[in-house]
Specification:
Layout: E1 2-6, H1 14-20, E2 25-28, E3 41-46, H2 52-57, E4 62-66, E5 82-87, H3 97-109, E6 112-117, H4 119-125, H5 138-147, E7 158-163, H6 172-180, E8 184-188, E9 192-193, E10 202-203, H7 204-211, E11 223-228, E12 234-240, H8 242-251, E13 255-258, E14 262-265, E15 274-281, E16 287-294
Helix pairs in contact: 3-5, 6-7, 7-8
Length: about 300
């Protein structure tokens, strides 16, 4: 999954801000600016010395604490609501020590781990070592170990990858590597765009497809899209592709790909439009779920 990282100092275009709220979660660099009332689960970077419990009680979903902080101060908290953020002391391409640190300690005491890696380290962490190599990549191995750590009703421990500030920025290729390993990518909101505002940036729909390693088993490449209302009652099944997903995120409406008509903006002529409330990907990364607010019987 793609997880946007939002800074309090960023000025985001209204369309992008609306689109980011459709994703399952977002990480805020400042807890005081976190949108705790939105649909997306609000994560925030905090210090272990902060009044973390008050922040969680105020609606913050997950507190992201540095793995080198004094973790004794957060040891009694609900593990599912704690994420440990690992930074590397070296930018050497081969230095993947923070993956080993997260594997030996992080996944056993938190609901998520976030790895801060350079682009070269991401490539090394997702490289299985060649076509004849046996076993998963280092990142995929960490994800598999994390999946064996079940945190109550929250499910398995999540693994997220954040691109080091010294790197040039995410590419679709790097996002695919992380997604194929089963991890989520933390992408600075400033690197993303929707519609006409995506020039020179990663288009959000394309970035989401890459970060989720979204695939289709259909010959036409269309992705099954389950459409549910706000109470998660199924309204029907449609299909999506890169073009329709980009249009849906840019407009904030239910836009699909019709096998007969091509790009299909639901209800554009009938008035039975759908306002997008949330967009998610299933666990096998081969189907989408659109949660919508149906404007009239559709």
């Amino acid at each position: 999954m793609l997880v946007p990282k939002i800074s309090a100092t960023q000025t985001l275009e209204p369309a992008l801000k609306r689109a980011l709220r459709l994703l399952p979660s977002a990480i805020y660099t400042d807890a005081s600016s976190a949108d705790v009332d939105g649909e997306a689960a609000a994560w925030a970077l905090v210090s272990a010395s902060d009044d973390v419990q008050t922040l969680l009680n105020s609606g913050l979903s997950v507190a992201v604490v540095g793995a080198d902080d004094d973790l004794a101060q957060v040891s009694g908290f609900d593990r599912a609501r704690l994420a440990l953020r690992y930074g590397s002391n070296s930018e050497a391409d081969s230095d993947l020590s923070i993956i080993a640190r997260a594997a030996t300690a992080g996944i056993a005491c938190a609901g998520a781990v976030i790895l801060n890696l350079t682009a070269q380290q991401i490539s090394a962490a997702t490289d299985s070592g060649g076509v004849e190599a046996q076993g998963p990549s280092a990142l995929a191995g960490l994800v598999r170990a994390a999946e064996r750590q079940i945190v109550g009703a929250s499910g398995p421990v999540r693994v997220l990858v954040e691109l080091s500030g010294s790197s040039d920025g995410w590419t679709l290729g790097l996002l695919r590597r992380v997604g194929a390993a089963g991890a989520s990518a933390v992408v600075d909101a400033g690197e993303l765009g929707v519609g006409d505002d995506s020039t020179g940036r990663l288009e959000l729909g394309a970035a989401l497809i890459a970060a989720c390693d979204l695939s289709s088993d259909r010959s036409d490449g269309l992705v099954t899209t389950v459409v549910v209302d706000e109470q998660r009652v199924c309204l029907g099944v449609a299909y999506s592709n890169g073009a329709s997903l980009a249009a849906a995120l840019a407009s904030g409406d239910g836009v699909y790909w019709s096998r007969k008509r091509g790009l299909w903006h639901k209800g554009l002529t009938s008035g039975a439009t759908q306002a997008l409330v949330g967009v998610s990907v299933d666990c096998d990364a081969d189907a989408l779920c659109f949660r919508v607010r149906q404007q009239s019987p559709g």
